[in-house]
Amino acid sequence: MDVERNPYEFSTTNSADRDVEGVPDFVKPILKAKGWLKFLGVVSIVMAVLYTLATLGIGLVITWIPFWLGMLLLKISSLFESGDEDDLKIAFDKLRLVFKIVGIYTIVGFALGILGVIAAIIFPALMMEFNQMQP
């Protein structure tokens, strides 16, 4: 017996679920985030370019990292869109690289912050000592 589909019935799957059919359930949440990956990639690239322009190119020493991260995020997003199993493996490997870079960038930032606090404490004391040595 053929059951007719009700045209007024609400679908239980949204459009994001239809994009990721045929992949394991544990992969679907990250595949649904591909729009956010694109957004973060574009924002990262734009901020890197603006910072480089604002520092007259001197900031390029630092801003190549956010620019590279933005390019990686855009590449990951495009690999997720293909839905091919080999592309998904490459995308997850690149995503691992993004997390590694952000982790190292964060550790370096914390280290520089701690050095900055130490310098802010020591520098005034050295200046006071230097001023006392002046006749």
Question: Could you please describe the fold and organization of this structure?
Answer:
The chain has 135 residues and is mostly helical. It has a domain of 81 residues. It has five helices and no strands. Helix 4 packs antiparallel against helix 5. The termini are far apart. About 4% of the residues have low confidence.
Short structural description:
Helix content is 76%, strand content 0%.
DSSP, total strands: 0
The end-to-end span amounts to 106 Å
Helical content class: over 70%
Proportion of residues in extended strands: under 5%
Secondary-structure map with pairings?
Blueprint: H1 15-19, H2 28-32, H3 34-54, H4 60-82, H5 85-133
Helix pairs in contact: 3-4, 4-5
Core attributes:
mainly alpha, elongated, 135 residues
